[in-house]
């Protein structure tokens, strides 16, 4: 597992990055991290006693409008091209094999790029700390993207993120003529929750659209 500083800005085609452009895995692996509630409401916060990080894959059309979102509330898109492999609530509840440094990730989203509908132009990869705990409070952890041969194009070390970061736009996939172009964003978001984060990313994508000529 990576223990280095966050990856530098990365932007290239999947083939240029040495990835098989057929299937990708957007995945999360972190060590169970207990958080002790403080104050008079401690006894009411048992369900918030461990860091819970969630992943989402958001599909946008050419106008950066949300077409579909795959996350713990919806485990696959309408075309079944993107599939969530199951939600972990605290980094250890999927069994010993899903613990940090083990072969399996606690949370994983599978993207079968050839099946993604033609009207989908952008894909946003997002992470959120469900209870609002900062990512950097985990003992160890990372988010990564790989192909089905195990080749990784980036790893984001959660410990190296800003102390107040609880929602992160991890990366952006943009459809090109015969491939997908990947940009590692590593951008903290102000949104609270994955649904609001998907809207914030839509706004950022729309801002970056080229201005039509002749207007």
UniProtKB/TrEMBL annotation:
Signal sequence extent: none
> Do you know which PANTHER family this protein is assigned to?
CAMP-BINDING PROTEIN 1-RELATED (PTHR32097:SF17)
Where does the chain cross the membrane?
none
The answer to whether the entry has keyword Zinc is: no
Q: Which InterPro entries match?
A: Stress/Tellurium_Resist, TerD
> What lineage is this protein's organism placed in?
Bacteria, Pseudomonadati, Pseudomonadota, Gammaproteobacteria, Moraxellales
Q: Which CDD domains match?
A: TerD_like
What name has this protein been given in UniProt? TerD family protein
Q: Transmembrane: is it a keyword of this entry?
A: no
The protein's UniProt keywords, in alphabetical order, are: Tellurium resistance
Record organism: Psychrobacter proteolyticus
Where does the TerD domain start and stop, copy by copy?
45-183
